[in-house]
Design brief:
This protein is an alpha/beta fold and 326 residues long. The chain has helices spanning 43-49, 82-91, 111-118, 134-143, 155-161, 165-177, 196-205, 233-250, 301-307, 311-318, and strands spanning 9-13, 28-31, 36-39, 55-59, 97-101, 123-128, 146-150, 182-187, 210-214, 255-259, 269-272, 277-281, 291-295, 324-325.
Length: 326
């Protein structure tokens, strides 16, 4: 079912209590217009309600055309087979949104078959460098709810820290030609923080649904970054205020979020490696910045959720309670 056929909201969960028929419903909805979850109840109530994560990041490959200087996952792991992905799909039942991630997921020659496995049962997000063939674009339009494209600002900055700016922009143009909803992700370094408002303007011009600013994780390629490139949470507060002020002043339309690393965001995501190993991410006390929860090839997501010690952080993040949002 293509995204254009979907309702603007997708019901995630509900609990029972009191309403007009004697039952109270507490809903979490996925808003396709802003590409985010919106909760109308408190975190403890949500925690009592759900038995699996709200969202899971599934790495379907580690291959990539780029070598981003901040990449936390450069280590190569063999791609999961279609058979393995089918098992993962079965064991992930109960999760509502899955990011088919990488590496660069579009590097898989069988990406259309991968999409066929997960479409119809999950909200599918696609993190990508936006370099896709027209054959895949037609398939993505039908199967993917939104694409999340890495773009770190103007040409020289994006090309320096991520990859070819012009190739990314060409890919964005192709996605837009196919009416695929886009969001942007920008990794913020000290040497790039003066470009944030430019990124917001680019996102607005592209009619992006959302632009997500996030700090790097000290792992993989990012270990080679100078220590001064890492901003602190407190240093990010005035940066977000600039974004907030700019949105009000210039009328930018995208939702804008800024994720920093604090106790409230530690371990907030459930991350699945290509081999099925499943982790809480990021966990800064661990050498690899992940905490093992099991393997999704062997364990159903309900069991992994029981082992997951960051449930509150997970819920707060995905309803926008522990990150800056404007």
């Amino acid at each position: 079912m293509g995204w254009l056929k979907r309702p603007p909201f997708f019901l995630f969960s509900q609990t029972t209590g009191v309403n007009m028929s004697g039952q109270e419903k507490h809903n979490i909805e996925f808003d396709y217009n802003s590409c985010r979850f919106d909760g109308n109840t408190d975190v403890p109530t949500i925690l009592r309600t759900i038995t699996s994560p709200m969202s899971v990041i599934l790495q379907i490959t580690r291959k990539c055309q780029f070598s981003c200087i901040f990449c936390s996952e450069p280590e190569q792991i063999p791609d999961p087979s279609l058979e393995a992905l089918n098992i993962m799909k079965q064991n992930l039942k109960g999760v509502k949104r899955i990011f088919l991630s990488g590496g660069e997921p579009l590097c898989r020659n069988d990406f259309d078959e991968v999409l066929n496995i997960f479409s119809g049962e999950y909200i599918i997000g696609l993190p990508t460098n936006a370099i896709a063939s027209s054959r895949l674009l037609a398939h993505i339009k039908e199967k993917v709810s939104f694409v999340n494209i890495g773009l770190d600002g103007p040409r020289k900055i994006t090309t320096r820290i991520r990859g070819n700016y012009d190739a990314i922009m060409k890919g964005i143009e192709q996605f837009k030609a196919y009416d695929v909803p886009i969001s942007l992700t920008s990794v913020v370094l000290r040497s790039t923080m003066d470009s944030l408002l430019y990124t917001c303007q680019i996102a607005d011009m592209l009619n992006a649904k959302k632009v997500k600013f996030i700090l790097p994780i000290p792992k993989g390629n990012a270990l080679k970054l100078p220590a001064d490139e890492y901003l602190t949470h407190n240093e990010c507060i005035p940066l977000f205020e600039e974004i907030k002020s700019g949105k009000q002043k210039f009328g930018w339309s995208p939702l804008m979020t800024f994720t920093t690393w604090t106790r409230d965001t530690e371990g907030y995501s459930v991350l699945v490696y290509p081999n099925g190993n499943t982790f809480a991410w990021p966990v800064f006390s661990k050498p690899e910045k992940v905490l093992s929860l099991g393997n999704i090839l062997n364990d159903p997501i309900e069991l992994i959720w029981q082992r997951y010690p960051y449930k509150v952080n997970h819920i707060r993040k995905y309803i926008g309670k522990s990150i800056f949002v404007v």
